[in-house]
Amino acid sequence: MDRTTTDRTIPPVSTLDSWLEAVDRSLAAEPLSYNKVDDNLGTSQDLNYLPVGVGLLVSFMKLSDVVNVLGTRLANYKKPPAVFWLFAAKEPSIDSYSEWARELRKLYGQERYTPQVWIQVGGGAMVAKELALSDVRPDALSIQGSDAGGHGIERGASLIGQLPEVNDVLNKALSEAGDGRKIPHLLASGGIVDARGALAALTLGAQGVVMGTRFLASPETIVPHPEYQRRILDARDGSQSTIRAKVFDELRGPNAWPVEYDGRALVSNSWRDLHEKGVPIETIRDGHREAVAHEDGGYGINSDRAVIWAGTGVGLVNEMKKAGDVVRETRQGIRALVADLHRTLDTGRSRL
Protein backbone atom coordinates (compact mmCIF):
# COMPACT_ATOMS: atom_id res chain seq x y z
CA MET A 1 0.00 0.00 0.00
CA ASP A 2 2.88 2.40 0.64
CA ARG A 3 4.06 2.14 -2.94
CA THR A 4 0.63 2.64 -4.44
CA THR A 5 -0.07 5.78 -2.44
CA THR A 6 3.11 7.35 -3.78
CA ASP A 7 2.22 6.33 -7.33
CA ARG A 8 -1.30 7.76 -6.87
CA THR A 9 -2.71 4.38 -7.96
CA ILE A 10 -4.31 3.00 -4.81
CA PRO A 11 -6.38 -0.02 -5.86
CA PRO A 12 -10.09 0.77 -5.52
CA VAL A 13 -11.75 -0.76 -2.49
CA SER A 14 -13.98 -2.72 -4.86
CA THR A 15 -10.99 -4.94 -5.72
CA LEU A 16 -10.81 -6.16 -2.10
CA ASP A 17 -13.40 -8.87 -2.76
CA SER A 18 -11.50 -10.22 -5.77
CA TRP A 19 -8.30 -10.40 -3.72
CA LEU A 20 -10.08 -12.29 -0.95
CA GLU A 21 -11.63 -14.63 -3.52
CA ALA A 22 -8.14 -15.40 -4.86
CA VAL A 23 -6.99 -16.22 -1.32
CA ASP A 24 -10.02 -18.46 -0.79
CA ARG A 25 -9.34 -20.37 -4.01
CA SER A 26 -5.68 -20.78 -3.11
CA LEU A 27 -6.51 -22.17 0.34
CA ALA A 28 -9.13 -24.48 -1.13
CA ALA A 29 -6.53 -25.92 -3.49
CA GLU A 30 -3.88 -26.25 -0.79
CA PRO A 31 -5.36 -25.99 2.74
CA LEU A 32 -3.14 -24.86 5.59
CA SER A 33 -2.75 -27.23 8.52
CA TYR A 34 -2.83 -25.87 12.07
CA ASN A 35 -2.29 -29.15 13.88
CA LYS A 36 1.17 -28.09 14.98
CA VAL A 37 -0.30 -25.00 16.62
CA ASP A 38 -3.56 -26.29 18.03
CA ASP A 39 -5.04 -29.77 17.57
CA ASN A 40 -8.53 -28.28 17.67
CA LEU A 41 -8.03 -26.01 14.67
CA GLY A 42 -7.59 -28.61 11.93
CA THR A 43 -7.06 -26.96 8.53
CA SER A 44 -7.94 -23.62 6.97
CA GLN A 45 -10.94 -25.30 5.33
CA ASP A 46 -12.48 -25.84 8.78
CA LEU A 47 -12.41 -22.13 9.66
CA ASN A 48 -15.33 -19.75 9.04
CA TYR A 49 -12.92 -16.97 8.11
CA LEU A 50 -9.86 -16.53 5.90
CA PRO A 51 -6.62 -16.73 7.93
CA VAL A 52 -5.30 -13.52 6.38
CA GLY A 53 -5.21 -9.85 7.24
CA VAL A 54 -6.17 -6.77 5.24
CA GLY A 55 -4.20 -3.55 5.61
CA LEU A 56 -6.24 -0.35 5.45
CA LEU A 57 -4.73 3.13 5.11
CA VAL A 58 -7.59 4.96 6.74
CA SER A 59 -6.63 8.43 5.48
CA PHE A 60 -6.91 7.25 1.88
CA MET A 61 -10.12 5.20 2.07
CA LYS A 62 -13.76 5.70 2.90
CA LEU A 63 -15.01 3.49 5.72
CA SER A 64 -18.41 3.22 4.03
CA ASP A 65 -16.79 1.75 0.88
CA VAL A 66 -14.96 -0.91 2.89
CA VAL A 67 -18.12 -1.75 4.87
CA ASN A 68 -20.17 -2.08 1.66
CA VAL A 69 -17.69 -4.49 0.06
CA LEU A 70 -17.39 -6.66 3.17
CA GLY A 71 -21.12 -6.51 3.87
CA THR A 72 -21.88 -7.87 0.41
CA ARG A 73 -19.32 -10.59 0.91
CA LEU A 74 -20.81 -11.65 4.23
CA ALA A 75 -24.36 -11.53 2.84
CA ASN A 76 -23.27 -14.03 0.20
CA TYR A 77 -21.83 -16.33 2.90
CA LYS A 78 -18.26 -15.81 1.78
CA LYS A 79 -15.46 -16.03 4.30
CA PRO A 80 -14.21 -12.68 5.66
CA PRO A 81 -10.59 -11.83 6.59
CA ALA A 82 -9.46 -12.57 10.14
CA VAL A 83 -7.56 -9.34 10.80
CA PHE A 84 -7.80 -5.68 9.86
CA TRP A 85 -4.56 -3.73 10.10
CA LEU A 86 -5.27 0.01 10.46
CA PHE A 87 -2.68 2.69 9.80
CA ALA A 88 -2.18 6.30 8.74
CA ALA A 89 -5.09 8.01 10.46
CA LYS A 90 -5.25 11.78 10.39
CA GLU A 91 -5.53 13.66 13.66
CA PRO A 92 -7.35 13.07 15.92
CA SER A 93 -6.27 9.50 15.22
CA ILE A 94 -7.98 7.90 18.23
CA ASP A 95 -11.44 9.01 17.08
CA SER A 96 -10.77 7.81 13.56
CA TYR A 97 -9.48 4.40 14.63
CA SER A 98 -12.40 4.01 17.07
CA GLU A 99 -14.93 4.51 14.28
CA TRP A 100 -13.21 2.05 11.96
CA ALA A 101 -12.81 -0.60 14.68
CA ARG A 102 -16.42 -0.26 15.82
CA GLU A 103 -17.94 -0.51 12.35
CA LEU A 104 -15.74 -3.40 11.20
CA ARG A 105 -16.48 -5.46 14.29
CA LYS A 106 -20.19 -4.68 14.14
CA LEU A 107 -20.32 -5.76 10.52
CA TYR A 108 -19.49 -9.36 11.34
CA GLY A 109 -22.26 -9.89 13.90
CA GLN A 110 -22.17 -12.08 16.99
CA GLU A 111 -22.82 -15.33 15.15
CA ARG A 112 -19.65 -15.02 13.08
CA TYR A 113 -15.98 -14.73 13.82
CA THR A 114 -15.16 -11.38 15.43
CA PRO A 115 -12.27 -9.87 13.48
CA GLN A 116 -9.13 -8.72 15.18
CA VAL A 117 -8.10 -5.08 14.84
CA TRP A 118 -4.40 -4.33 14.73
CA ILE A 119 -3.06 -0.78 14.69
CA GLN A 120 0.38 0.41 13.66
CA VAL A 121 1.86 2.92 16.12
CA GLY A 122 4.98 5.02 15.77
CA GLY A 123 4.38 7.79 18.26
CA GLY A 124 5.71 6.18 21.44
CA ALA A 125 4.36 4.88 24.74
CA MET A 126 1.76 7.58 25.40
CA VAL A 127 0.06 7.06 22.03
CA ALA A 128 0.04 3.30 22.61
CA LYS A 129 -1.47 3.86 26.07
CA GLU A 130 -4.17 6.16 24.70
CA LEU A 131 -5.13 3.59 22.07
CA ALA A 132 -5.15 0.70 24.55
CA LEU A 133 -7.47 2.58 26.93
CA SER A 134 -9.77 3.88 24.19
CA ASP A 135 -12.88 2.41 22.61
CA VAL A 136 -10.64 1.01 19.87
CA ARG A 137 -9.64 -1.88 22.17
CA PRO A 138 -6.96 -3.04 19.71
CA ASP A 139 -6.13 -6.73 19.70
CA ALA A 140 -2.56 -5.89 18.72
CA LEU A 141 -0.35 -2.83 18.39
CA SER A 142 2.48 -2.83 15.89
CA ILE A 143 5.14 -0.64 17.48
CA GLN A 144 7.06 0.86 14.59
CA GLY A 145 10.64 1.96 15.07
CA SER A 146 12.35 4.61 12.96
CA ASP A 147 14.42 1.92 11.18
CA ALA A 148 11.27 0.75 9.36
CA GLY A 149 10.94 1.11 5.62
CA GLY A 150 7.96 2.86 4.08
CA HIS A 151 5.80 5.34 5.95
CA GLY A 152 5.85 6.11 9.64
CA ILE A 153 5.55 8.92 12.14
CA GLU A 154 8.29 11.46 11.41
CA ARG A 155 9.01 12.10 15.07
CA GLY A 156 9.85 8.53 16.08
CA ALA A 157 12.58 6.49 17.69
CA SER A 158 14.23 3.08 17.45
CA LEU A 159 12.62 -0.03 18.89
CA ILE A 160 15.26 -0.55 21.55
CA GLY A 161 14.00 2.42 23.55
CA GLN A 162 10.32 2.26 22.61
CA LEU A 163 9.33 -1.35 23.21
CA PRO A 164 10.31 -1.79 26.88
CA GLU A 165 8.65 1.51 27.83
CA VAL A 166 5.49 0.73 25.84
CA ASN A 167 5.30 -2.64 27.59
CA ASP A 168 5.74 -1.13 31.07
CA VAL A 169 3.32 1.74 30.45
CA LEU A 170 0.58 -0.51 29.07
CA ASN A 171 0.87 -3.04 31.88
CA LYS A 172 0.62 -0.29 34.51
CA ALA A 173 -2.19 1.63 32.80
CA LEU A 174 -4.40 -1.39 32.14
CA SER A 175 -3.85 -2.73 35.63
CA GLU A 176 -4.92 0.61 37.13
CA ALA A 177 -7.92 0.86 34.77
CA GLY A 178 -9.43 -2.18 36.46
CA ASP A 179 -11.99 -2.88 33.72
CA GLY A 180 -10.63 -6.30 32.81
CA ARG A 181 -9.31 -5.41 29.39
CA LYS A 182 -6.18 -7.26 28.31
CA ILE A 183 -2.96 -5.70 27.17
CA PRO A 184 -2.81 -5.77 23.36
CA HIS A 185 -0.29 -8.09 21.77
CA LEU A 186 2.79 -6.08 20.86
CA LEU A 187 4.41 -6.52 17.47
CA ALA A 188 7.82 -5.05 16.68
CA SER A 189 8.37 -3.36 13.32
CA GLY A 190 11.48 -1.70 11.96
CA GLY A 191 14.85 -3.07 10.87
CA ILE A 192 14.03 -6.74 11.58
CA VAL A 193 14.93 -9.14 8.76
CA ASP A 194 16.16 -12.33 10.43
CA ALA A 195 16.15 -14.42 13.62
CA ARG A 196 18.66 -12.17 15.39
CA GLY A 197 16.49 -9.08 15.09
CA ALA A 198 13.36 -11.07 15.90
CA LEU A 199 14.85 -12.51 19.09
CA ALA A 200 16.03 -9.07 20.14
CA ALA A 201 12.49 -7.72 19.71
CA LEU A 202 11.01 -10.58 21.72
CA THR A 203 13.51 -9.85 24.48
CA LEU A 204 12.44 -6.19 24.48
CA GLY A 205 8.82 -7.19 25.09
CA ALA A 206 7.24 -7.98 21.73
CA GLN A 207 5.09 -11.05 21.13
CA GLY A 208 5.69 -11.03 17.39
CA VAL A 209 7.59 -9.20 14.67
CA VAL A 210 6.85 -7.50 11.35
CA MET A 211 9.40 -7.98 8.55
CA GLY A 212 8.26 -5.88 5.61
CA THR A 213 11.62 -5.27 3.91
CA ARG A 214 12.59 -8.95 4.07
CA PHE A 215 9.48 -10.00 2.16
CA LEU A 216 10.24 -7.54 -0.65
CA ALA A 217 12.67 -10.23 -1.81
CA SER A 218 10.05 -13.00 -1.90
CA PRO A 219 8.49 -14.23 -5.15
CA GLU A 220 5.00 -13.91 -3.66
CA THR A 221 5.41 -10.14 -3.24
CA ILE A 222 4.01 -7.97 -6.02
CA VAL A 223 6.47 -5.23 -6.93
CA PRO A 224 6.05 -2.54 -9.61
CA HIS A 225 9.12 -3.65 -11.61
CA PRO A 226 11.80 -6.41 -11.46
CA GLU A 227 14.43 -3.71 -10.90
CA TYR A 228 12.78 -2.94 -7.56
CA GLN A 229 13.70 -6.36 -6.17
CA ARG A 230 17.13 -6.29 -7.78
CA ARG A 231 17.94 -3.00 -6.08
CA ILE A 232 16.74 -4.41 -2.75
CA LEU A 233 19.04 -7.41 -3.14
CA ASP A 234 22.00 -5.24 -4.18
CA ALA A 235 21.63 -2.69 -1.35
CA ARG A 236 24.19 -2.71 1.45
CA ASP A 237 24.77 -0.74 4.67
CA GLY A 238 21.13 0.13 5.24
CA SER A 239 21.95 2.83 7.78
CA GLN A 240 23.54 4.83 4.95
CA SER A 241 21.79 3.54 1.82
CA THR A 242 18.32 4.39 3.16
CA ILE A 243 16.96 7.70 4.42
CA ARG A 244 13.74 9.08 5.90
CA ALA A 245 12.32 12.02 3.96
CA LYS A 246 9.10 13.64 2.76
CA VAL A 247 10.39 14.23 -0.77
CA PHE A 248 9.53 10.64 -1.71
CA ASP A 249 5.85 11.62 -1.50
CA GLU A 250 6.35 14.85 -3.45
CA LEU A 251 7.58 13.33 -6.71
CA ARG A 252 4.21 13.01 -8.46
CA GLY A 253 2.63 16.09 -6.96
CA PRO A 254 1.74 17.56 -3.58
CA ASN A 255 2.21 15.19 -0.65
CA ALA A 256 -1.10 13.47 0.17
CA TRP A 257 0.08 11.97 3.46
CA PRO A 258 -0.87 13.49 6.84
CA VAL A 259 1.74 16.00 7.94
CA GLU A 260 2.96 13.78 10.82
CA TYR A 261 4.33 11.14 8.40
CA ASP A 262 7.43 10.71 6.30
CA GLY A 263 8.94 7.58 4.74
CA ARG A 264 12.20 5.60 4.57
CA ALA A 265 13.46 4.51 1.16
CA LEU A 266 16.72 3.88 -0.69
CA VAL A 267 18.65 7.10 -1.24
CA SER A 268 17.88 8.19 -4.81
CA ASN A 269 18.85 10.87 -7.28
CA SER A 270 15.57 12.62 -6.49
CA TRP A 271 16.59 12.89 -2.82
CA ARG A 272 20.14 13.99 -3.72
CA ASP A 273 18.84 16.70 -6.03
CA LEU A 274 16.72 18.24 -3.27
CA HIS A 275 18.85 17.78 -0.18
CA GLU A 276 22.38 17.98 -1.60
CA LYS A 277 22.00 20.22 -4.67
CA GLY A 278 19.00 22.37 -3.79
CA VAL A 279 17.20 21.62 -7.06
CA PRO A 280 13.61 23.02 -7.11
CA ILE A 281 10.90 20.40 -6.54
CA GLU A 282 9.23 21.10 -9.91
CA THR A 283 12.49 20.29 -11.69
CA ILE A 284 12.83 17.11 -9.64
CA ARG A 285 9.29 16.12 -10.58
CA ASP A 286 10.11 16.63 -14.25
CA GLY A 287 13.13 14.33 -13.91
CA HIS A 288 11.04 11.75 -12.09
CA ARG A 289 8.33 11.89 -14.76
CA GLU A 290 10.88 11.24 -17.50
CA ALA A 291 12.59 8.44 -15.56
CA VAL A 292 9.46 6.41 -14.80
CA ALA A 293 8.61 6.41 -18.52
CA HIS A 294 11.82 4.46 -19.23
CA GLU A 295 11.97 0.70 -19.60
CA ASP A 296 13.29 0.30 -16.05
CA GLY A 297 10.43 2.35 -14.61
CA GLY A 298 12.90 4.73 -12.98
CA TYR A 299 14.05 2.02 -10.55
CA GLY A 300 17.31 1.17 -12.37
CA ILE A 301 20.65 2.24 -10.98
CA ASN A 302 21.26 4.65 -13.87
CA SER A 303 18.04 6.65 -13.60
CA ASP A 304 17.48 5.98 -9.87
CA ARG A 305 14.51 8.29 -9.39
CA ALA A 306 11.51 6.11 -8.53
CA VAL A 307 10.89 5.38 -4.85
CA ILE A 308 12.13 2.06 -3.45
CA TRP A 309 10.81 1.73 0.09
CA ALA A 310 13.18 -0.17 2.38
CA GLY A 311 14.19 -0.31 6.03
CA THR A 312 17.70 -0.17 7.48
CA GLY A 313 17.88 -3.98 7.53
CA VAL A 314 17.96 -4.06 3.74
CA GLY A 315 21.72 -4.80 3.73
CA LEU A 316 20.96 -8.22 5.22
CA VAL A 317 18.49 -9.12 2.46
CA ASN A 318 20.78 -10.82 -0.05
CA GLU A 319 18.71 -13.53 -1.75
CA MET A 320 15.23 -14.25 -3.03
CA LYS A 321 13.39 -16.57 -0.66
CA LYS A 322 9.81 -17.83 -0.48
CA ALA A 323 7.74 -16.18 2.23
CA GLY A 324 7.06 -19.47 3.98
CA ASP A 325 10.77 -20.26 4.08
CA VAL A 326 11.51 -16.85 5.60
CA VAL A 327 9.04 -17.50 8.40
CA ARG A 328 10.24 -21.05 9.07
CA GLU A 329 13.92 -20.10 9.05
CA THR A 330 13.28 -17.16 11.37
CA ARG A 331 11.43 -19.34 13.88
CA GLN A 332 14.08 -22.06 13.72
CA GLY A 333 16.83 -19.47 14.00
CA ILE A 334 15.30 -18.03 17.16
CA ARG A 335 15.20 -21.47 18.76
CA ALA A 336 18.84 -22.08 17.81
CA LEU A 337 19.93 -18.71 19.20
CA VAL A 338 18.09 -19.31 22.48
CA ALA A 339 19.69 -22.73 22.81
CA ASP A 340 23.11 -21.23 22.16
CA LEU A 341 22.53 -18.54 24.80
CA HIS A 342 21.49 -21.21 27.30
CA ARG A 343 24.71 -23.12 26.65
CA THR A 344 26.74 -19.95 27.02
CA LEU A 345 25.10 -19.07 30.32
CA ASP A 346 25.27 -22.63 31.65
CA THR A 347 28.99 -22.90 31.00
CA GLY A 348 29.70 -19.41 32.32
CA ARG A 349 31.40 -18.34 29.10
CA SER A 350 30.73 -14.76 28.08
CA ARG A 351 31.03 -13.28 24.62
CA LEU A 352 31.85 -9.87 26.03
From TrEMBL:
Record has Oxidoreductase as a keyword: yes
Give the organism's phylogenetic lineage.
Eukaryota, Fungi, Dikarya, Ascomycota, Pezizomycotina
Q: Which UniProt keywords apply?
A: Flavoprotein, FMN, Oxidoreductase
Q: Which Gene3D superfamilies match?
A: Aldolase class I
Q: What is this protein called?
A: Nitronate monooxygenase domain-containing protein
**Could you cite one Gene Ontology molecular function of this protein?**
nitronate monooxygenase activity
Q: Does the keyword Nucleotide-binding apply?
A: no
